[in-house]
Design brief:
heteropentamer; A mainly alpha; B mainly alpha; C mainly alpha; D mainly alpha; E mainly alpha; C: 6 helices; globular; D: 20 helices
Chain lengths: 637, 102, 169, 504, 507
């Protein structure tokens, strides 16, 4: 358990602040001075990332866990603070962000070497690191929301990096807007939370809930909306596959390892607010996402899109894990057995988040290496035979695949097992779905792996594929190592116990069942994929079972189609209708009409001046008559 | 026979005034219109003299002097305008003088 | 006698006044106007305002009406064809005549005034007028002087044919 | 009338009390003398003499502004001098000066005698100054007729133009009719108030004070009421209040521009000067009659003036109709006077602001007008801002002031009137007034638009090129600039003047 | 403590006006331009000065730099009283900064008839400084009108499409609004029985002796709709997009950026504290009008716009809806949010107008359908525009975020339903904002644009555009990162302003 210290040693706090400021400073410097000096900008950014990673490790390893805040805004009774809550959870997330971030930065040095707008890219990365750290450190929900939006912004900038591509421009826009939809609920949830508890400080919230404050289910559900947007859960998952328009390192860092995981991190942060009703919803959303995305992944031909749907699926796993909630455990303590609730959902979700960050970043960077090697070819059916051309990439990628499909001993195996165990304990249907998803995961991953790396090159670009330089390969190696060992909790220093002790561990019979299930699903999925797919230039499934293939494609497209229909046919038409009403009805008919009527009266009044004296004299006469009637009291005013 | 009381004088003055007003309204010949206006002035003087006599104050009578002078001046100027206008437009019918309108 | 005279003069005045309004011939109208003024002058006499009656005859019947006649002759108007009244004009005239009648009747109905003439006769003597005009009302007299001056100038400006050379630069 | 009384009356004829008016009269005669004495080439200086003389008289009035105590009712009570009447004296003098200045511009384009014009303006102005001090219906009538007859002549002054003469005739007939109405009203009042059968009858029943006493004791007398409404309709003609406003556009269009200015400013103000005195002192016990009549008049005047001006494109008619709506605003203030202390000051301030702005507009109009003075269209202002930015700026400032936009004097005038009206509880009228202001923006800014925006396309039929404009002389420069600056200055700094006015 | 030998408020008002007068009296063009730099810089410098020394200068009644000048209308209770309280301060600074940016932009714009252009802009600037420096309600109104006049002329002379109609409509609408609010102010003054238009004494009088509730309702209605027209409260807003669409950029910057805030400022500073009953009576209708009309309906209408300037104009109308909502909330927090939003929106919308004009200079069109891919040629312009867009849609780090956030938080207490609807507007604004940025800058250029850019190769943002843009953007970021720069002074002043409402509501 982390130790709460009201007077943290300044050095650690300063470290944390430094960690926060470094990337911001880097971004500022790049934006202001290094716009045309891409090389220097890259160097500055990478240096900042390196320093940040170092600081992250120092902070994590140091035994100090602290909280600190200062007031940022005060109006009336409302006060908003900028604060740091540095506990084990934050420390774990910090290290993930720092390490993966560093890897991606280094990878980018090579990957983006020839890019014209390198400065903007690295500036964007720095901004992202800053925003992400903000989320990690945030000690209250408002602050988290602020950085939540900022990661969205940096994601927008980075997806839109190649903005001359219409698809990139559209994808970035979509990502931002869809996230905003999620944030709509998130913000409402925060505000509701503020009024329900009088505070949004995470620690104080925990204290209030522990003290017996009643939580309405609406609050956690509204807050969950934020996670639905950011972690791309159903039905707001549509932006993530499109976000692959961004450079691959961005996909690795933001859309696989860290930012999209922020939703899960946030849920873990507000775990105390979770009431059973909310958890059920969260669980099913996560489960559905996991299944849906896995199904979609099967029919992808773009290497990054496969990985994107895989990410979606894994995020669904994490959300589902979180939604499964607490686990009753028995502890032996001094001879007596205590039953206590353990936040197993948090543990499982965070564990999977960690391992996933490693192996998914690894795979993305691997795919980046492939894409780089194949001269920006992304279609797996135009690749093939890369096993020989890019051996290092192949082997590291293989480790990633092995990790994700849950080959025993690799990172994914442990975390997935923890989730499956939890699901089995808490909810059989969820367990069934997740297990099936695991089959699918193994299936599409092996499909990807086989088609990409085996066989013969199916295009010129694949034929001339080559391994990248050290900046490209080194991060792969580092991440591969992490993917290998990341599943052993023992591998981690003792500083993360606050999180890792929450990981549910199967014992005895359960352990066996899980092990068998896990091995079985992996084997079934991997084997059937290996058998089904041949490294050719066409999709075997599409040939063999076009109905199934087309059905899956339709399933994949259904959400986009629905949203497109809404945007183009409903929203836009509604907007045009309102605009029309305003122009024609309000500004036209009413206002112009009114002024026209006044003008007509004016013309009428003007026309009364007929120019003939005797008519005018009648006016006088009329006036005198009326006044006379007044005087006679005939007209009573 | 109507006995000449203040009331009858007042009514008589009113009738004259009304006839003058009616002439102003009805007639199109500027000169006749002008005569109507003069009739209205005369009606007022009649009223003044009558009031002066019955009220026993002199101011009314003195006022008539001024009114007569003013009326004379008015007629002089007015007729000068009418003549000048006739020279220009060859008409003094008011319904033909509608060069200024709208 | 006074009653008879009053009635006679009143009738004369009103009938002539009506004549002014309705006579087709402008000359006739002017003549009626003159006669009407004579009637009024007679009424002035009945009201013991001899001086005013005299002045009225002198100024109005003498000068003004003559001026009217003169202008009528000058402009040679009387022969002009008369246009028939338009229906709207007839309606308007009828309505206004009725309204004027109502107005006069209201005057008659609502007037609650002392009927008897005052015992002292104001303005019986010429001297009174002189005193008034040259003491109390001296200022208006002065103003009237200016009024006459400007109307004289005005008539000159409006009527006289100026040579170009006469116009000041 | 015995000799003693004559002596008393003669002694109360303190001529020094009307020194400015006398001086104006003398100046007027002097102009004629100069005309005879000076060689023809020197005649152009006579207008300068006239203006300088008036300025001297203005200085005199200002120096003697504070009245000697106890001598405020000279001429046997024919006159009653108050601070208000003093202010109106200044007003009419100022107006007269500016009319003379505008006349210099307009007359220069006509082949007509000139000296007489200045002469009549002076006499008419003197008459108005007396009018503002009138305390007796006889004097009121005489002064008013002097003004009116002067205006008959002035309106038809450009007799070479048949439209001008037509305007003259129209003004003559309608003016004479309204004078007759006024006179008959006076007769009725005089007769009723002096009638021995009625309580509180007065011996000098045309005197305002005695009349007021009588009216106070006979608050529902029909004849008195009839007299009052007849008098009011006579005044309504002068101020151009509905329905006696109908003559305004025609006459304003036909009249020479300086005369239009004279009508729009001086003659209207004269009407208000009388109305202020009558409605709020003499007729005050007939509030049951006067108040609703004026209120309805104000409302109708505001609405009609603005609506009719809305689509007008002849600027003289436009300014005339806009003047009608100004009469409506002023009536608003007049109605408020008996109930709100300080409302008189508001009306006077409004009048001054109106004077300043109007003369600036008329000054510009006189320069823009061609030889045909009756033909002044909005189209003629196209491109004015380019060709003569000075005139355009003056015009914009003046029109803004007329429209009542801060920081111009006109706004302050409206503000004071509105405050007074609000204090008097006239909410309905205020709403009408507000709407009127908004409507008026349309045509005032339409004018500014014509002068400033170059894309102004001439309305149908106006294919003729605009007339050549007069050159702006040095004196005109000074005058117009002074007017514009005053419009601005009084918009935000009223200084002691404001303090003085608003204490009324 | 401020140790200037003169009154900084008066100087910042008088300096631009004096130069305007000098130009009107015929200052040569070279001098006009040179001095214009000075005249626009002075208010900005003074504004920063008073902002810096505000805390020290704070005196009784929560006002700093309080000075009185007599103009001869004491009889009407009118006196030029200058001073700043915590609410006026940020807006005063806003006026200074936006004025500086607009001025710099205008001087370099090379507009036709530059002298007249500068003169009008200077008048506007002087008026704007006066609006927020006036403690006297009369002068507060007065300066607003002073600043309003140039708008009409500038739209008319230098305006774009439909300028004549736009100028007229704008003027008539704004006059109507101004007249209604004037009537309201007069009513307030008369009914309060105060002897002075001075806000401080009005407040004292009304605290001691509030106006009857029904009267308050009527007066508040006058003020609400009068000011509402000025701030483009739906459905009285149609002048705004049209006018801004036609207005020349410097004018639109000042009008939409600063002048429009007059109405909101009036509601916060005058109507709300003085008419608590009236406020409580009307806050519901106001909130519903604002959320349904301004935020949602106008939000959707904004989505349908294809003309860049119209879009900015409509978006400005939409954001005013948030401001009204904050006012309707009526708490210190809500009002604070409104002030924050006013400042932020002022900066961002001015920036957007500036940049739209810069875009126009490069594309020769405002139609977004005929643009695209401009970022390839003008990356800096694109960066600024995206930043401005994101600022205006409330991205944290920019000042707008604070305004919106605090308004939402405050609004929840008023009505969660309205809050939800209002927050939905955030999504709408993201949709049109990003869509605009995308269709102008990203993707490939349209053929039409390619034709234009082939003829006139577009340059990236010039320094004459960059500096004013930087001033605005820097201010946005500054407040975004350090909201206390504004909120500290607001906090105390608003507590004062919101107290009558809270006390009345508590009853």
């Amino acid at each position: 358990m982390w130790r709460r210290s009201s007077f943290p040693p300044m050095t650690m706090l300063q470290h944390a602040i430094l960690a926060l400021i470094l990337p911001l400073a880097s971004a500022t410097i790049i934006a202001l001075f290094l716009r045309r000096a891409g090389g220097i900008a890259a160097a500055v950014s990478v240096l900042a990332a390196t320093a940040l990673a170092v600081i992250a490790v120092i902070l994590a390893l140091h035994d100090d866990r602290f909280e600190a805040s200062f007031e940022w805004l005060r109006l009336g009774d409302f006060s908003l603070s900028l604060g740091i809550k540095f506990d084990d959870l934050a420390a774990l997330m910090l290290v993930i962000v720092g390490v993966v971030g560093l890897c991606v930065h280094v990878f980018s040095l090579g990957y983006m070497h020839d890019d014209a707008a390198k400065a903007r890219f690295f500036g964007g990365l720095s901004i992202f690191m800053f925003s992400m750290l903000g989320i990690v450190f945030a000690d209250n929900l408002f602050m988290m929301f602020i950085f939540w939006e900022l990661v969205g912004f940096s994601s927008y900038v980075l997806i839109n990096h190649w903005h001359e591509r219409q698809s990139a421009a559209d994808a970035s826009k979509k990502a931002f807007i869809v996230n905003r939809v999620g944030d709509f609920g998130f913000l409402l949830g925060i505000i509701a939370c503020y009024y329900a508890f009088g505070t949004v400080n995470l620690t104080e919230l925990a204290a209030k809930v522990d003290g017996g404050a009643v939580v309405a289910a609406s609050i956690p559900l509204l807050l969950f909306c934020g996670a639905v947007g950011k972690s791309a859960q159903l039905p707001l998952q549509v932006w993530l596959p499109d976000a692959m328009e961004g450079p691959t390192p961005v996909s690795a860092l933001i859309h696989a390892a860290t930012m999209v995981a922020a939703g899960i991190y946030m849920l873990c942060r507000i775990n105390v607010l979770m009431v059973p009703e909310a958890l059920t919803v969260i669980m099913w959303v996560g489960t559905a996402t996991a299944l849906y995305a896995a199904l979609c992944a099967i029919v992808q031909s773009d290497i990054k899109k496969v990985l994107a749907y895989s990410t979606l699926s894994q995020l669904g796993y994490m959300v589902a894990a979180f939604g499964l909630g607490a686990l009753a455990t028995h502890h032996d303590h001094g001879g007596t057995t205590h039953e206590m609730l353990m936040a197993a959902g948090v543990g499982a979700a965070m564990f999977h988040l960690t391992t996933h960050a490693f192996f998914k970043a690894l795979m993305f960077l691997g795919s980046g290496s492939v894409i780089h090697g194949c001269h920006h070819e992304q279609d797996i059916f135009k690749m093939g035979g890369l096993r020989r051309k890019m051996p290092l990439t192949f082997w590291t990628f293989t480790i990633g695949v092995a990790a994700i499909i849950g080959i025993p001993g690799l990172a994914g195996f442990f975390s997935k097992d923890a989730i499956l165990y939890l699901a089995m304990t808490k909810s059989t249907p969820v367990f069934a779905v997740l297990a099936f998803t695991a089959v699918l995961t193994a299936f599409y991953m092996v499909r990807l792996w086989k088609i990409t790396f085996f066989g013969t090159p199916r295009s010129d670009s694949a034929g001339h594929a080559h391994e990248g330089g050290l900046t490209l390969t080194l991060p792969l190696v580092v991440l591969a190592v992490l993917a290998l060992v990341g599943g052993y909790t023992a591998f981690y220093p003792q500083v993360f116990t606050g999180v890792f002790e929450l990981i549910p561990e199967a014992h005895e019979s359960a352990h066996t069942i899980i092990l068998i299930t896990s091995l079985a699903v992996t084997a079934i999925g991997a084997f059937s994929a290996w058998m089904l797919y041949q490294p050719t230039s066409t999709d075997t499934l599409a040939q063999k079972s076009p109905n199934l293939f087309n059905g899956l494609v339709a399933l994949r497209n259904s959400f986009d189609a629905a949203y497109d229909y809404y945007v183009a046919k409903i929203q836009q038409r509604f907007a045009i209708l309102l605009n029309f009403l305003e122009q024609i009805f309000l500004a036209g008919l009413i206002i112009r009409g009114f002024s026209g009527v006044v003008g007509l009266f004016g013309m009428g009044a003007r026309a009364l001046h007929v120019g003939r004296l005797n008519v005018y004299l009648y006016w006088f006469f009329g006036g005198v008559v009326v006044l006379w009637l007044f005087a006679a009291g005939v007209i009573h005013p | 026979m109507i006995t000449p009381t203040l009331d009858t004088y007042l009514v008589l003055s009113g009738v004259l005034f009304a006839i003058g007003f009616f002439g102003v309204l009805l007639r199109k010949n500027t000169i006749v219109v002008f005569m109507g206006l003069e009739l209205m002035l005369v009606a007022s003087t009649l009223g003044l003299v009558a009031f002066s006599r019955f009220n026993g104050t002199m101011d009314g009578n003195v006022f008539v002097f001024f009114i007569l002078t003013v009326a004379a001046a008015e007629v002089a100027v007015g007729l000068a305008i009418i003549v000048a206008l006739f020279r220009k437009r060859q008409t003094i019918q008011v319904d033909e003088l509608d060069g200024l309108k709208n | 006698m006074a009653t008879f005279l009053f009635n006679f003069l009143a009738l004369l005045t009103v009938i002539c006044a009506v004549g002014v309004v309705v006579s087709k011939n402008t000359v006739n109208a002017a003549m009626c106007f003159m006669l009407s003024l004579v009637g009024v002058a007679g009424l002035f006499v009945l009201l013991d305002a001899y001086l005013l009656a005299f002045v009225l005859l002198l100024v109005y019947a003498g000068a003004v009406a003559a001026l009217f006649l003169f202008i009528v002759m000058l402009l040679d108007m009387q022969g002009g064809p008369r246009k028939p009244f338009k229906p709207l004009t007839v309606v308007a005239a009828t309505v206004s005549a009725a309204l004027l009648l109502v107005g006069v009747l209201m005057l008659h109905q609502n007037a609650a005034l002392a009927a008897a003439p005052a015992e002292n006769v104001p303005g019986a003597s010429l001297k009174d007028y002189a005193y008034q005009l040259f003491s109390t009302y001296l200022l208006p007299v002065q103003i009237i002087g200016f009024l006459l001056l400007i109307s004289m100038l005005g008539v000159i400006v409006l009527s006289k044919k100026f040579e170009d050379a006469e116009i000041s630069p | 009338m015995n000799l003693e009384a004559v002596k008393v009356a003669a002694e109360s004829n303190i001529w020094s009390a009307i020194l400015p008016e006398l001086a104006l009269g003398c100046l007027a005669v002097l102009l004629l003398v100069f005309e005879m004495l000076l060689p023809r080439k020197q005649h152009s200086h006579i207008s300068t003499i006239s203006i300088l003389g008036q300025i001297a008289i203005l200085v005199l009035v200002c120096v003697q502004f504070d009245l000697p105590p106890g001598k405020t009712d000279p001429f046997s009570g024919l006159l009653h001098q108050t601070a208000t009447s003093q202010a109106m004296r200044v007003f009419f003098l100022l107006a007269s000066i500016f009319v003379s200045m505008i006349a210099r511009v307009s007359l220069a384009r006509q082949r007509l005698p000139r000296i007489e014009f200045y002469h009549i303006v002076l006499v008419a102005s003197a008459a108005m100054m007396l009018l503002a001090q009138a305390n007796h219906f006889l004097l009121l009538f005489v002064a008013l007729e002097t003004l009116t007859i002067g205006l008959y002549i002035l309106v038809s002054y450009f007799r070479t133009n048949s439209l001008t003469l037509e305007a003259g005739l129209k003004y003559l007939v309608m003016g004479a009719l309204s004078s007759s109405l006024l006179l008959f009203g006076i007769v009725l009042l005089y007769g009723v108030a002096g009638n021995p059968a009625l309580p509180g009858h007065a011996s000098n029943s045309m005197h305002f004070g005695e009349l007021a006493n009588f009216l106070a004791q006979n608050p529902r007398n029909f004849l008195a009421g009839a007299g009052i409404v007849l008098v009011l309709s006579g005044i309504a003609f002068k101020i151009g209040a509905f329905p006696f406003q109908i003559w305004i556009p025609d006459v304003y269009q036909g009249a020479p521009t300086p005369v239009t200015a004279f009508l729009a400013v001086s003659s209207k103000a004269a009407g208000f000067a009388i109305l202020l005195v009558l409605a709020n002192t003499v007729f005050v016990s007939y509030g049951w009659l006067v108040h609703p009549v004026l209120t309805l008049m104000a409302a109708a005047t505001l609405i009609f003036g603005n609506l009719a001006a809305l689509t007008q494109h002849n600027v003289k008619r436009l300014i005339g109709l806009s003047g009608v709506s100004h009469a409506g605003f002023l009536l608003l203030g007049v109605v408020a006077v008996p109930r709100v202390p300080g409302a008189t000051g508001a009306v006077i301030f409004y009048l001054f602001a109106y004077l300043i702005a109007s003369f600036a507009v008329f000054g510009v109009m006189a320069h823009v007008a061609g030889d045909n003075d009756t033909d002044q269209e909005l189209d003629h202002y196209a491109g004015l801002a380019r060709q003569n930015p000075f005139l355009a700026t003056v015009l914009a400032v003046a029109l803004g002031s007329l429209a009542g936009i801060p920081p111009l004097a006109g706004f302050m005038g409206k503000l004071f009137i509105f405050v007074s009206a609000f204090k008097a509880g006239m909410y309905g009228l205020l709403m009408i007034a507000i709407v009127s202001v908004v409507i008026s923006i349309y045509y005032y800014f339409g004018w500014i638009r014509a002068a400033f925006f170059e894309t102004w396309t001439p309305s149908d039929g106006a294919v003729n090129p605009p007339p050549t404009r007069s050159k702006v002389s040095g004196l005109a420069h000074v005058g117009l600039a002074a007017l514009a600056l005053c419009s601005i200055l009084f918009g935000f700094y009223q200084g002691p003047l404001g303090a003085w006015l608003l204490a009324r | 403590m401020s140790n200037l030998p003169f009154d900084p408020l008066l100087v910042s008002i008088v300096a631009p006006l004096a130069l305007a007068l000098a130009i009107a009296l015929g200052l040569p063009k070279r001098w006009s331009v040179l001095l214009a730099y000075v005249a626009f810089a002075i208010p900005a410098l003074m504004a920063l000065h008073v902002w810096w020394y505000f805390g020290d200068a704070l005196k009784d009644h929560g006002y700093a730099f309080l000075t009185h000048y007599s103009t001869g209308l004491e009889a009407y209770g009118i006196r030029l009283t200058l001073g700043l309280n915590g609410i006026a301060l940020p807006l005063f600074v806003l006026a200074g900064l936006v004025g500086l940016a607009a001025g710099l932009y205008a001087i370099q714009s090379g507009a036709e008839r530059l002298k007249l252009y500068l003169m009008l802009l200077l008048v506007m600037q002087g008026g704007l400084m006066g609006v927020f420096a006036s403690v006297d309600v009369f002068f507060f109104y007065f300066f607003h009108e002073l600043a309003l006049i140039p708008t009409f002329i500038m739209v008319g002379i230098w305006g774009g499409r439909d300028r004549s109609y736009a100028a007229m409509k704008l003027t008539i609408y704004l006059t109507l609004g101004a007249m209604l609010s004037l009537l309201g102010l007069i009513a307030l003054y008369v009914k309060s029985g105060a002897t002075s238009f001075d806000l401080i004494s009005l407040r004292q009088t009304l605290t001691a002796q509030p106006i009857a509730a029904t009267v308050q309702n009527n007066i508040f209605a006058l003020l609400m709709f009068g000011f509402g027209i000025l701030v483009s409260l739906w459905p009285l807003h149609t002048w705004a997009p049209l006018g801004y669409g036609a207005a020349p950029s410097a004018n639109a910057m000042l009008h939409a950026g600063v002048l429009k805030k007059f109405g909101l400022y009036g509601l916060i500073q005058v109507a709300l504290p003085l008419l608590p009953e009236g406020f409580l009576h009307w806050s519901g209708p106001l909130a519903w009008l604002a959320v349904i009309g301004n935020v949602l309906i106008v939000g959707f209408i904004t989505m349908a716009q294809r003309d860049l300037k119209q879009l900015v104009g409509y978006s400005s109308v939409m954001h005013m809806g948030y401001a009204f909502l904050g006012i309707a909330a009526g708490s210190t927090l809500g009002l604070g949010g409104v002030v924050l939003l006013m400042v932020a929106h002022g900066l961002s919308v001015a920036l957007l107008f500036l940049l739209s004009t810069s875009i126009y200079h490069r594309t020769h069109t405002f139609s977004m359908d005929a643009m695209g891919g401009l970022a390839q040629k003008t990356p800096v312009l694109a960066a600024f525009f995206v930043a401005a867009t994101l600022a205006s849609i409330g991205l944290p780090g920019f000042a707008n975020f604070w305004g919106e956030l605090t308004i939402f938080v405050a609004l929840w207490q008023f009505s969660p339903l309205i809050t939800a609807l209002a927050v939905a507007g955030v999504v709408i604004s993201a949709v049109y904002g990003l869509r605009a940025a995308a269709s102008v800058f990203f993707g490939q250029p349209t053929e039409a644009l390619a034709g234009v850019t082939a003829q006139h190769p577009p340059s990236d943002l010039r320094w004459s555009e960059k500096i004013p843009a930087l001033v605005l953007l820097a201010a946005l970021l500054f407040i975004g990162f350090w909201p206390k720069s504004i909120s500290t002074s607001l906090h105390a002043a608003l507590a004062e302003n919101a107290r009558p409402v809270q006390q009345t509501a508590a009853k």
